[in-house]
Backbone:
């Protein structure tokens, strides 16, 4: 068998991982990892001459042909989220999420069905987006059973317990970057919803990064109901209350909120997406508030993320019912990934 051709590393991926020794070592190994998977899974590269493969925040995605059928090879930097992704995809088995055809834990690689990379929920009308998101959410919310993959996921309630300790300490260390009442609002959520989550018998598999750009169209697009024409990608799986998944659709597409009253529009979106998925919109509001306070502290610790910090503070405080003064107008806030050299959102 002829050796597979070398696959170039996109410049943005190279920049992202060249800042430390672990990232540089992974970048150096990446061409060999890709070549090895191409040969092991008998894949044909489906990349136009001179074209670059796709890349996300955490890895490389190469279009390939598997026995003549379009697919993609994903090779991820081995971090916690990437290591558990394959377990969630195995449980979903193509229902609501991209179908995994093969995986290799040693190289953090997966062979996946090919979706329409240029067609996401990011540009569809918001009412259609809510319908699709809600339908997919219902399919993704699996109830735990005896399969071994469930042991790999962290629990939302445990995350809340961790935040109860970590958020106040980070807030102090960062020089109290926002009013204490907003921190306390997040801590109240952690204490109440964390306890509810521990007592709840309604645990499901939760995709915690379930936003518009992470929902791609399937080729064709003629099935009914409409959500069957889409699939989730790049999940960050946990177990717990499904309402934890709502937050990313609130901190994305902020410019689509009504100009006359964006604060009311944000709360309406929380309600609409929750109802489309059969979720409790009040629980969704609470979890989203806590998640955005955690994001705000993360951004406050990173130079050059002032726009991202402002966006998280606007969303968190608006969900808390007291939009902070002094923030830019919401329609002037950057989308996640637009600021600080296209860094990815939390």
Residues:
């Amino acid at each position: 068998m002829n050796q597979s051709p070398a696959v170039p590393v996109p410049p943005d991926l190279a920049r992202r991982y060249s800042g430390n020794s672990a990232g540089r070592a992974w970048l150096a190994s990446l061409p060999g990892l890709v070549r090895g998977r191409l040969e092991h899974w008998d894949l044909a590269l489906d990349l136009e001459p001179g074209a670059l493969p796709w890349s996300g925040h955490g890895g490389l995605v190469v279009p390939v042909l598997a026995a003549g059928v379009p697919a993609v090879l994903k090779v991820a930097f081995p971090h916690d989220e990437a290591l558990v992704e394959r377990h969630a995809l195995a449980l979903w088995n193509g229902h609501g999420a991209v179908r995994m055809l093969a995986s290799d834990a040693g190289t953090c690689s997966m062979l996946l069905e090919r979706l329409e990379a240029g067609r996401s929920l990011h540009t569809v009308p918001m009412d259609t987006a809510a319908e699709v998101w809600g339908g997919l959410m219902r399919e993704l919310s699996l109830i735990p059973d005896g399969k071994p993959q469930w042991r790999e996921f962290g629990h939302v309630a445990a995350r809340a317990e961790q935040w109860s300790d970590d958020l106040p300490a980070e807030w102090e260390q960062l020089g109290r970057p926002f009013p204490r009442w907003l921190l306390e609002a997040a801590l109240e959520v952690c204490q109440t919803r964390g306890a509810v989550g521990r007592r709840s018998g309604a645990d499901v598999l939760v995709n915690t990064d379930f936003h518009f750009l992470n929902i791609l169209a399937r080729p064709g697009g003629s099935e009914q109901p409409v959500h069957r024409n889409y699939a989730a990608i790049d999940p960050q799986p946990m177990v717990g209350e499904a309402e934890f998944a709502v937050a990313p659709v609130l901190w994305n597409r902020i410019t689509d909120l009504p100009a006359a009253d964006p604060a009311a529009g944000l709360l309406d979106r929380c309600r609409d997406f929750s109802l489309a998925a059969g979720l409790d919109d009040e629980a969704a509001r609470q979890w989203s508030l806590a998640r955005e306070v955690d994001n705000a502290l993360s951004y406050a610790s990173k130079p050059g993320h002032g726009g991202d910090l402002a966006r998280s503070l606007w969303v968190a405080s608006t969900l808390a019912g007291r939009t902070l003064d002094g923030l830019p107008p919401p329609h002037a806030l950057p989308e996640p990934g637009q600021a600080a050299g296209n860094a990815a959102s939390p």
Remarks:
- Residues 340-346 have pLDDT under 50 and may be disordered.
